[in-house]
Amino acid sequence: MDFDDDVVREIVSRQRAEGLANNYRGEKDTFTDIPPSLLSASDIKRYVEKTGLISPFCIGGGNRSRLKKASYEGRIGDCAYVFPKDSNEFVNILQVEKPLLVKANSIVFVECDLDFRLPRNIAVRFNLQIMHVHRGLLLGTGPLVDPGYWGKLCIPLHNLTNEDYEIPLDEGLIWVEFTKTTSDNDLGRIPLRETERQHWDIRKFILKASRQFNLDRLPIGIRSSIPDSATKAEDSANKAARDAELASKQALEAKKSSDFSRNVNSAGVLITILTIAGLWASFYFGTRSDINEVSSRVADLQKEISSIKEAIQP
Q1: Is residue 298's pLDDT more than 60?
Q2: Residue-wise burial string across 72-82, b where 16 or more C-beta atoms lie within 10 A, e elsewhere
Q3: Residue 192 pLDDT
Q4: Distance separating alpha carbons of residues 73 and 227, to the nearest angstrom
Q5: Is residue 241 part of a domain?
Q6: Is 137 among the domain residues?
Q7: Would you say residue 240 lies in a domain?
Q8: What angle do CA 154, 101, 151 make, to 5 degrees?
Q9: What is the pLDDT of residues 93-124, one digit of tens each?
Q10: How far, rounded to the nearest angstrom, does the alpha carbon of residue 138 sit from its chain's CA centroid?
Q11: Which of 22, 23, 79, 100 is most buried per CB count within 10 Å?
């Protein structure tokens, strides 16, 4: 069968996968010809058709085929949750037939559209498609999903950029790879310590994470700290700007006050100098006038004395 044709064909539906997995559950591995390794596309298909490994499982689609040489594409499921600001309760933000909006500097918990029913010897790893990574989304190193896990994947997306990001529902979100373990044995605990091994509601994962290790405590909001830090930084910058403006005004007022004081002081000095000069002039010219008057009187007396002397001489 040609995997690269342009026609998309669903070869294992959700309903069929459930039946296959229930029939295969507990059986030993039947594909002894497949060595323990990373599964190729053909081996992924064989396991899906035998065990209901993942669903829905489609082949074909050309360059948009969900099946690659050693991985399968997971897309956005039916829900995506965020913790609104100042709230400890998460809400579903996914809208019907609309792209998922991952707001700038936010965390969104996204359900993958695939159902996983892993056999006893198949483990799964997943990571974001590289285009999302290049645009600033972060998932981190994809965690290992142990053999025997049945359920949905909860994918926390971190938008580290200052721009909102939209992901259409028909676009790929993650690539999933499958690894056959070295043996099929009964050792090891069942995934997530729940004997039923089914985890179809990702709200359980989010609620458990928001309560940390104490399931009796009230949940706490899981949000990015970047917006709060940015708000605080902006508030600090605005306060610094206001303080700088106030300081500038105070400096200008102080300068004006200083200039006025200097002008007043200069005027006082000038007035003092003029006053002293006036006093000196008054004294000098007044005294000189008096001296001139006395000198004139003395000259007149001298003339009278000379006349008297002439009159009494024989």
Answers
A1: no
A2: bbbbbbebbbb
A3: 60
A4: 32
A5: no
A6: yes
A7: no
A8: 15
A9: 999 889 999 999 999 999 999 999 999 999 99
A10: 12
A11: 100
C-alpha closest to that of 109 among 214, 219, 222, 213: 222
The rounded distance, in Å, linking the Cα atoms of 209 and 200 is 16
- At residue 256, the 3 state secondary structure works out as helix
Domain count, the chain: 1
Q: How far is the C-alpha of 44 from the C-alpha of 34, rounded, in Å?
A: 11
Between CA 299 and CA 259 the distance in angstroms is: 59
DSSP for residue 169? T
pLDDT digits (tens, 9 = 90+) for 174-220: 999 999 999 887 788 776 655 556 789 999 999 888 887 776 777 88
- What is residue 252's DSSP assignment? H
Q: Which domain holds residue 183?
A: 9-224
Alpha-carbon gap, residue 25 to 18, rounded angstroms: 10
The pLDDT assigned to 234 comes to: 66
89 located within any domain: yes
What pLDDT, on the 0 to 100 scale, is given for residue 1?
44
CB 156 within 8 A of CB 108: yes
Alpha carbons 205 and 89: distance in angstroms, whole number: 14
Question: Model's pTM, two decimal places?
Answer: 0.72
Residue 147 has pLDDT above 80, yes or no: yes
CATH number of residue 21's parent domain: 2.70.40.10
